[in-house]
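FAQ
Q: What does a multi-component entry look like?
A: The components come first, one per line:
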Amino acid sequence: MFPLKKLIILAVGLFGLTSAKSSTGNSVLVVVEAAQKDDFSIFFDGMRDQGYELTFRGPKEEAPLLIEYDEPKFAHVIVLASDTKNFAKDITPQSLISLTHLKTNLILGLSTKQTPLTSLASEFGLIPPPPGTPLISYFPKREEPSTLIPITPKVQDSAVLQSRNNHPIWFSGSPHALGNNPLLVPILRAPVESFASEVDGGSPDAIVDSADKGGEGFWAGSQLGVVTGFQTLDGARVTWVGGVDVFSDEYIQKQSSKRRGVQSGNRQFAHDVVAWTFQESLVLRIDKVEHHRVNTTEPRDQYTIKDQLEFNAYISKFNPKNRKWEPFSALKDLQLEFTMLDPHIRTSLPAVSGTPGKYSANFRAPDRHGVFKFVVDYKRKGWTALHSSTTVAVVPPRHDGYPRFLSAAWPYYAGAISTSVGFFLFSAFWLAGEVRESWKRPGKASKIE
Amino acid sequence: MLAALLSTLVLALSAQAATLKLQSPKLVVTDSMGTQLRSDSFSLSKQVAEAVELGAKDILKMTFQVLDQETGNGVQPHQTFLRFYDEKTNEEGIQPVRVTPGGKAKFELNLSKPPLSLPPTPNGDPLKVSLIIGTSQYDPISVELFDLVLPKSQPAPENPLESTFHVLPEIHHTFRADNKMPPQPISFAFIGIVLAPWAILLSLWSQVVPKPSRLFSPSILPFVASLGAFEGLLFWYWVDLKLGQVLLYGFMLSLPTFFAGKTALASIGSQRLGRK
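Then the predicted structure of the entire assembly, as tokens:
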């Protein structure tokens, strides 16, 4: 019974794996030199197994276009032609930028050569070293040349590499320093002992000289990135790869020179990079938001100052295994702002236990009236940015909305009621009273006179 | 094929190659006037026990010579770096050290002119200083030498948007204080004052003893009742009703009141005149 169960789970898992797709589409354009296409066959097959439909195009071929009639033709674009200096007319830095505005995800390859993509990379906050300076490391001692570096990712560094991957990732190519742009998502950093230097060693003095120049004269250490993601404000994801060989068959099949039989981590790494860049992993969305007064359920266009308000957000995460959006309750640091120009209230929006995907906060509307917004703005490195803004008016109480029967006013109430009672009693007595002779006579006499 | 084999052989040989050693490694701390504050030797095998502390204008000098372990000849490695690393902030700075072809290395850290590569130390946490020597044909060396305590510095510049990628501080609205109520006994006291005239009225009435003898006569009672109903309506308005409702009910009430009043006043008039 147990093995059968296991088998079914495995089969379901495999089925899920083969039909896995991105949350934004599965058409991929790969820009690669025809001669190099076969070098990446394992990488391409892996993507086909994931359910992606690959279309190939040489960097100088005119078709298929990236953008046709202002519409992106592909959901994702990979540019592996990292040595190419002249691309076809429609593959320009500008067109790649417009693709990100159209929410197309990109994987862009850099190399030690100066290409149009190198200058585009600096627009993304990457600071590439001068051409012809690959990443070099003499650590650890190994048979491979110093430009071919095994990098063991630090799992805590990056949310993107989620699968536990302790096998070294073989890398050769150009590193880049990272600017302080918070939209950058470092995926793989250079090893501590590595540095960028001219091919064939370069002279030790040249390194010191370039460092003395200050500024960006010197690229070294673990602050450098070799594969770095960038998530645009529009939600598109761009991954810069310092050397496209990291995806090549050679590196995927390469075994460690020290420990024979240990596969490299490149295959898993390539999978993770594609999964993140093509919006499979770390993809969130807000399904809906609700707001109402506490103990009611109906939303209102306007609330009164000092009302006790409740705000609910429902958040889903994309599950690439079954291509479904599933309620996601694991966000711990979601915050809600109640904003009129500036946030008047910022409070945590914790998950509600028992209702998957529901986050709820409870607060008292401020005693300022005006047009307020419920704002959820969640940005974390690697995750989809969540933004939601709901406008409501906060008004002062209506004329009959103020507190009543205050103790300070009791004397006034007593006065008014006593006047009313007095009037009523007087009327009743006057209307129903007896007409007495003693009263009548003088009256009548005076009238007669 | 042969070439590939040969090249791997060469690589394998080079990987087995000799080790490097440091000759007379020394670190000296002087102040800006040149007075020697500390002089110590360091080694690749053991970390210097006591952290090196530098004042704002002190100078740290390090000298050593890189030698081939076996031949004793000086070696100029391709990579001779000092790494300054702050474990808490994960900030790292790497400073290359100039080594002469004879292997002699001299490094000077003058804090009045700190190099750009030095990481910021906003909390004054010690930096871990390690020496990284890498070159082909020798075993690479990466050794932690000592902890370096620097004076506090400005934190690293941060992108203005960076804070929005972390949990932001909570903001609570400060409400205006509620209106203050006078104590209830005072309210009661004033109710007493307001109701005091009733005592006078009732005491005077007790002398006069008016008798509403005709209250239940059919000509008077409807009018008195409708006046009472008006008072009741106004009380109801105060407690619960809206203005529109009051106007509607008041209008509905006014017609019977009008006729009841006419009848009542006529009956009083006829009574007063007819009695005669």
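Q: Is there any commentary attached?
A: Sometimes. For this entry: Chain B is about 35% helix and 25% strand.
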